[in-house]
């Protein structure tokens, strides 16, 4: 019988990512698929994907190809055959007809969520690891926060989570859901968050547009956020 040696850092990484995947499944429900993986330079890409990172440094190639691999795993869970996931004009992944989804990377790992459009019109996810959360510059609040934003409600997060880091991650998830839907770039200060325990609502300035979100921490190593637009909200937003 072959002996598989998994280094302890890799094991921890995988364990954390799998716990994040469980949480994402719970949030996005049975009409969604989830893929996670440590960053792995051996993941194959389709030619159009390869072309996108042709001139990129190897680290970027690896996170991009791992993200695509996670996305294909997520699609496969929903019965979709393997195929390319091109890059859209806003740097967003372009999903197969009838699907929406989102990809996020950290230093060590990637996650992707894909959902049927019948279930969610748009989704966004973000993973932020503990070290990255701790190094967010205090001055970042200037360009991250909305003038009417109150961070106090995020106080139910563990002590190692800086409120600004949670806000940053939640806004990234909301932006990833909103930006392809609106077909434009969305900035942090356009979005106002309201936190509740384990959840948040992101409202886009000047529009009757909201996305519902969730947040959690995983094994004291990772902040995970998710945002989703349902059919009802999407209809209001487009009208
Ligand atoms: C766009 C943004 C959300 C990406 O997040 P990030 O912290 O750089 O990195 P993450 O690893 O969490 O996510 C990266 C993934 O987000 C996805 N992504 C990038 N731009 C996106 C967009 N406009 N809409 C949806 N998803 C997007 C991609 O899948 C990308 O990975 P890939 O290039 O390997 O496919 C982030 O740069 C951001 O919040 N910017 C806000 C301000 C801004 O720049 N606005 C303009 C962009 S909308």
Give a quick rundown of the structure.
The chain has helices at residues 8-28, 47-52, 58-77, 130-134, 141-144, 163-182, 231-238; strands at residues 32-38, 99-105, 109-116, 122-129, 191-196, 199-204, 210-218, 222-229. It is α+β, with helices and mostly antiparallel strands and 239 residues long.
Tally of separate domains: 2
Question: Can you tell me the CATH class of the largest domain?
Answer: Alpha Beta
Radius of gyration: 17 Å
Number of separate strands: 8
Strand order in space, largest sheet: 4-8-7-6-5
Main pleated-sheet profile: 5 strands, antiparallel
Which regions have little confidence, pLDDT < 50, spanning 5+ residues?
A: none
Instruction: Indicate the overall shape.
Output: globular
Name given to the CATH homologous superfamily of the largest domain? 4'-phosphopantetheinyl transferase domain
> Could you say which structural class the secondary elements and strand pairing correspond to?
alpha+beta
Strand content: 15-25%
Mean pLDDT: 90
CATH topology of the largest domain: Ribosomal Protein L22, Chain A
Helix tally?
7
Q: What is the terminal separation in angstroms?
A: 61 Å
Bound molecules: coenzyme A
- How much helical structure, as a percent, in the residues? 25-40%
Order of helices and strands, N to C? HEHHEEEHHHEEEEH
Give an account of the 3D structure:
By secondary structure, the protein is α+β, with helices and mostly antiparallel strands. It folds into 2 domains: 8-120, 4'-phosphopantetheinyl transferase domain (Ribosomal Protein L22, Chain A, Alpha-Beta Complex), CATH 3.90.470.20; 126-238, Ribosomal Protein L22, Chain A (Alpha-Beta Complex). It is built from 7 helices and 8 strands; from the N terminus they run αβααβββαααββββα. The chain has helices spanning 8-28, 47-52, 58-77, 130-134, 141-144, 163-182, 231-238; strands spanning 32-38, 99-105, 109-116, 122-129, 191-196, 199-204, 210-218, 222-229. A 5-stranded antiparallel beta sheet has the order 4-8-7-6-5, with helices on both faces. The protein has a 3-stranded antiparallel beta sheet with strand order 1-3-2. It starts with 7 loop residues before the first helix and ends with a helix. The model has no long low-confidence stretch (mean pLDDT 90). The structure holds coenzyme A. Coenzyme A binds at residues 63-64, 67, 90-93, 103-105, 126, 172, 175-176, 179-180, 185-188.
């Amino acid at each position: 019988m072959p002996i598989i040696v998994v280094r302890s850092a890799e094991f921890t990484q995988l364990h954390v990512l799998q716990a994040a995947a469980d949480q994402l499944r719970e949030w996005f429900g049975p009409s969604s698929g989830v893929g996670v993986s440590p960053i792995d330079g051996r993941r194959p890409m389709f030619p159009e994907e390869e072309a996108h990172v042709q001139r990129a440094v190897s680290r970027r190639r690896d996170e991009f190809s791992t993200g695509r691999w996670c996305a294909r795993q997520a699609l496969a869970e929903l019965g979709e055959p393997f195929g390319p996931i091109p890059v859209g004009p806003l740097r967003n992944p372009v999903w197969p007809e009838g699907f929406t989804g989102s990809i996020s990377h950290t230093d060590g790992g990637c996650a992707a969520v894909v959902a049927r459009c019948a279930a969610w019109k748009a989704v966004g996810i973000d993973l932020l690891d503990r070290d990255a959360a701790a190094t967010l510059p205090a001055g970042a609040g200037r360009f991250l926060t909305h003038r009417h934003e109150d961070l106090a409600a995020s106080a139910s997060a563990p002590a190692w989570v800086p409120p600004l880091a949670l806000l940053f991650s939640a806004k990234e998830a909301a932006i990833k859901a909103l930006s392809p839907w609106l077909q434009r770039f969305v900035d942090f200060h356009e979005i106002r968050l309201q936190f509740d325990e384990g959840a948040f609502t992101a409202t886009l300035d000047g529009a009757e547009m909201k996305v519902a979100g969730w947040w959690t921490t995983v094994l004291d190593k990772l902040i995970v956020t998710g945002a989703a637009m349902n059919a009802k909200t999407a209809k209001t937003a487009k009208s």
